[in-house]
What we know:
Blueprint: H1 3-17, E1 29-42, E2 47-56, E3 61-65, E4 78-86, E5 89-97, E6 115-126, H2 136-145, H3 150-157, E7 162-174, H4 183-196, E8 206-211, E9 221-225, E10 229-233, H5 238-248, E11 254-261, E12 264-266, E13 275-278, H6 297-302, E14 311-313, E15 318-322, E16 334-338, E17 346-350, E18 371-377, E19 386-389, E20 403-404, E21 408-410, E22 417-424, E23 427-433, E24 447-453, E25 459-464, E26 472-479, E27 482-487, E28 491-494, E29 502-511, E30 520-525, E31 537-543, E32 549-554, E33 562-569, E34 572-577, E35 581-584, E36 592-601, E37 610-615, E38 629-633, E39 640-644, E40 653-660, E41 663-668, E42 672-675, E43 680-690, E44 702-706
Parallel strand pairs: 3-5, 6-7, 6-8, 8-10, 11-19, 14-16
Antiparallel strand pairs: 1-2, 1-4, 1-9, 2-3, 4-5, 9-10, 11-12, 11-13, 15-23, 16-17, 17-18, 18-19, 18-20, 21-22, 22-23, 24-25, 25-28, 26-27, 26-29, 29-30, 31-32, 32-35, 33-34, 33-36, 36-37, 38-39, 39-42, 40-41, 40-43, 43-44
Bound molecules: zinc ion.
Amino acid sequence: MHPTSRRLCASLVGLIFAVTIAGSVAGGARWTGELQLTHGDDFRAGRSVADGLVLRTADSTYLLAFDGRGPRHLAGKRVTVTGTHSGNRITVSSIAAAGGTSDGGTTSSLTTAATTKRVAVLLFNFQNDTRQPYTPSFATGVMFNNANSVANYFAEESYGQYSVTGGVFGWYTIPYDNTGCSYSAWATAAKSAATAAGVSLSGYTNFVYAFPSASGCGWSGLAYLPGSESWNNNSMGLRTNSHELSHNWGVHHASTISCSEGGVRVSLSANAANCTASEYGDPFTVMGAAQTRHSHAEHKAQMTWVPTAERQDATSAGSYSVGVNEQSAASPKVVRVARAGATNQWFYLEFRQPFGSYFDNFAATDPAVNGVTIRLAADYATRTQSKLIDTTPGTTSFGDAPLAAGRTFTDPLSGVSITTQSVSSAGATVLVSFAGGGDTQPPTTPGNLVATPSGSTSIALSWSASTDNVGVSGYRVSRNGSQVATVSGTTWTDSGLAVGTSYTYSVVAYDAAGNVSPAASAVGTTGPDTQAPSTPGNLVGTPMSSTTAALSWTASTDNVGVAGYRVSRDGTLVATVTATSWTESGLSPGASYKYSVLAFDAAGNASAEATTVTTMLSADTEAPSAPTLTVTVNAKNGRTSLSWTASTDNVGVAGYRVYRDGALLATTTRTSYTLRKQSGTFTYYVVAFDAAGNVSASSNTATVTVK
Ligand SMILES: [Zn+2]
């Protein structure tokens, strides 16, 4: 919403409802005529602006001023007004339906006779703004000539009953500036300009006044509802023109209703205070948020295209067909159900299918063509907003609002339940039920309930069908007192149960009205576990040394669960483990062992064995080679340096031992050793050793004297 819209909306309301009427006539006077709603569409802000009520009599149009909002629900009806007037403004003291037939059409006048609507589009601009934002040819295309023209839109959605013809005239510059939004005066001036240019305006049923963007008008389009005039604020396209002409032809907006209870979004609430409406929310029609879609079935009825014979009132519980909205031959095209407990509220049901190339070309997956759409609205003769009900309140989008096959919508106020039983390209079938009123008879008890073990962890249930005066909607299955399933068929299998365990089951049937049968019950016991785990996979034995072996394998599977593994060596059980690996030590070097592993479960079922043969590494009995020793004495500092050649070994040299005069002097992994000065004569030798403790022969001996 932008601030401009808000400000101008307020100024327009002031224009229409100026209550202080200087020089008004004292005492009451009386007028009879058709009540029309004036109403502008601010699509960008998503709200209706410049609302007001006018009285159209045989010779004049009066702006009506009420104490309050006035009786909008009487729009389109013939009314008698009493009050005082000044000029063309009436301050209303009372208003009442007058009966009889009004020009705009009440229920009694809704017929399906083919009708030609002649629409004159007058293009005008202003003395301070002479822009021509599009050509007359462009407007002619939009209105009459394009494949997706307004004329083709109405021809298609009216099943050929409305033929829209006419012409585009202008541009004319009218003697007004575009400040403010004096749309009524502008219209009069545009007509005068056209007449002065030689255009005959007789014989037109509707006038569309189109002008360059006037920021003083906080709407894209404005129209009388019903009526013959609409205004187009630089919005020359299908949506605005079809929307405003539809207003002229008798329909209000397609809104949405969004409800929540306790912070949780619900489809509908018994308490109206829990719900809010979005004026243009309905995504399935140009009277809501759509750019191209047909009007919904209730609106089509209000525009006289769905005769009484093609409408059905569901007054008793049962199944009803809902024909395809777009198809001329379909019947009924709309089914409605009264909402008990509310005044003049009905649930209108319609069903659509992908149709044509431009307007109702829904994708095959669109929820609108895979479910029944439910709207809350007044009776056909009352021109107020319809409200789309979101039957999937778990998502905030209304794109998935329709009631898909197999699903049920229940109104908490009236207790009306609607179940979509099936949908097809030929239509939908719904089951309607009523709380208290219509259907109070529960289905019969399900028969012959049998609970049969299906393996060791499942139990299969079956029963014979219940019967019902209206229809069985489904069955609820409980296990040990807790509901575990809702099914439409007469069988169900409970799985994931404990082995060899008994369970008590009960099954009840229910109908669409919520009536529940007595319960059938049966006890079932799962079978014992006789199924062995699978054989452990990929058993591998690896010698880690001459005396240690490591085993590993992949896990077995079991219908209940693997309890563990048994490891045997050469036929003798050596370990029971729960992991998938095991290491054994204390084995004999160089020996070969046959290992086997099997899995077992809690019931004692054992798998086949996986086997492998593992050969230990040989023992190390081979000594390293003898090193060769060299000893030198540093003449300067008297230090003695020993160095020797590296020994070799079949496994590996672990280190060296240095001896002096037959006594162990040092142990090192290096191949050199240095001593501080110590006077005397000494004899040295070195041996190598390995990890297994094998010791080489002694190196050569070397004797040195330090002075
Ligand atoms: Zn509108």
